[in-house]
Amino acid sequence: METRRPLLARGALCLLAAMLGGLLGGTTAALAASFVAIPISGTVDGGPESVSVSGLARITSTLVKTDERFHHPPRVILGFDLHNVSGTGVSTGGRYVTRSRDEMLRRLVASDVVEITFPLQPKGTGGFTAARAGLASFALTFDVNSGAVTGGTATVSTPGS
Q1: pLDDT digits 0-9 by tens, 31-87
Q2: How much helix, strand and coil, in percent to the nearest 5, is found in the chain?
Q3: Is residue 141 in a domain?
């Protein structure tokens, strides 16, 4: 006696086999992330007042190894979390906050300089309408074998200055 399998079941089986083949057959992988907390400070100039910014920036680094057949060098995914960074208005003493997170893919080197812009806004309701841009500059060092971020320094300034 011959049993017939529905077309949908065969299609699902083929899709599952293709997905497993892609997951098990590829050699590109992301490894465990490392992180450091780096003190950051500086001043963002401009109207209506300059803002003195300080805090701790959390930097994560995840090594991404690539298939050697494609001759890609190792890369890292860098994550920048500025939730613990805030500012004080120089003339009014008003509080400014940032809720910035950013990610980027960079080639893995022993040391790298990365700049990101971030929003800085007065604390309170409607603060986002008075947001201004700050520029965070990071000089980072890495373990080139593991991709771990090992340290660094950071400053804040005004974009375009």
Answers
A1: 568 889 999 999 999 878 899 999 999 999 999 877 677 778 889 999 999 999 999
A2: 15, 55, 30
A3: yes
